[in-house]
Amino acid sequence: MAVGPDGSVYVTDTWNHRVQKFNPTGKPIKTWGQFGQPLPEDPASSGYFWGPRGIAVDTQGRVFVADTGNKRIVVFDSNGNYLTEFGTGGFDPGQFDEPVGVAVANDGTVFVTDTWNQRIQSFIPSEGSGDLFYAPLAQWDVNGWFGQSLDNKPFIAVSAHNHVFITDPEGFRVIEFTADGEFVRTWGDFGTGIEQIGLPSGITVDPSGAVWITDSGNNRIMRFTLPQ
């Protein structure tokens, strides 16, 4: 899920293959999307999804959806109108194999967990001839994400200082990088203790810099304060 600048809440309803939008008090506003594969010759199919997972909203209210099965990131306005997309299947820069998590930094840079390619990719927004598009900026390898099970779905978050945080679900840990891919630190180990994680999945960073994760293996939410 993600929260827009106006407080609207967006949720990827994965196996209903759609996005749901709510107001800040939880009242449903609208939904969009249906199961399918987009076809270049059919503009109406641009909103088709195949198991969408990650979702993020930038400072301008644009909604980014990781359309995992279709190996792309799709961008909508706050009302669900299609704006653009980027990504295809493959290993080259700008291509994906199981994109799951997506996050947008304050400067507009988009970060994606390219799971089965075992890397993070970043993209920079550009505008040409009035069209919005996202060009590959950087990529770096992740020493993790080895399995292809349904549990191994990593998510991503970006702090106000442009540090990138990812979950390594079956590694039972969180990994932190700079925006350029330089390793900063990792923490976590399997277990039920206060410093252990059962299965980390969702992740976010709050305005104070604390890192929150959903520990689905232990049915709890965890909050971590980073060293100064």
Task: Describe the fold and architecture.
The structure is a single chain. The protein has 228 residues and is mostly beta strands. 0% of the residues lie in helices and 48% in strands. The protein contains no helices and 23 strands. It has strands at 2-3, 9-13, 18-22, 28-32, 34-35, 48-49, 55-57, 63-67, 72-76, 82-86, 88-89, 95-96, 99-104, 110-114, 119-128, 131-141, 156-158, 164-168, 173-177, 183-187, 200-205, 211-215, 220-224. The strands form 7 sheets. Strands 1-2-3-4 form a 4-stranded antiparallel sheet, with no helix packed on it. Strand 13 (99-104) and strand 14 (110-114) form a beta hairpin. It is globular. The mean pLDDT is 95.
Topology summary:
Layout: E1 2-3, E2 9-13, E3 18-22, E4 28-32, E5 34-35, E6 48-49, E7 55-57, E8 63-67, E9 72-76, E10 82-86, E11 88-89, E12 95-96, E13 99-104, E14 110-114, E15 119-128, E16 131-141, E17 156-158, E18 164-168, E19 173-177, E20 183-187, E21 200-205, E22 211-215, E23 220-224
Parallel strand pairs: 5-6, 11-12
Antiparallel strand pairs: 1-2, 2-3, 3-4, 7-8, 8-9, 9-10, 13-14, 14-15, 15-16, 17-18, 18-19, 19-20, 21-22, 22-23
The poorly predicted ranges are: none
What value does the average pLDDT take?
A: 95
**Largest sheet properties:** 4 strands, antiparallel
Beta-strand content bin: over 45%
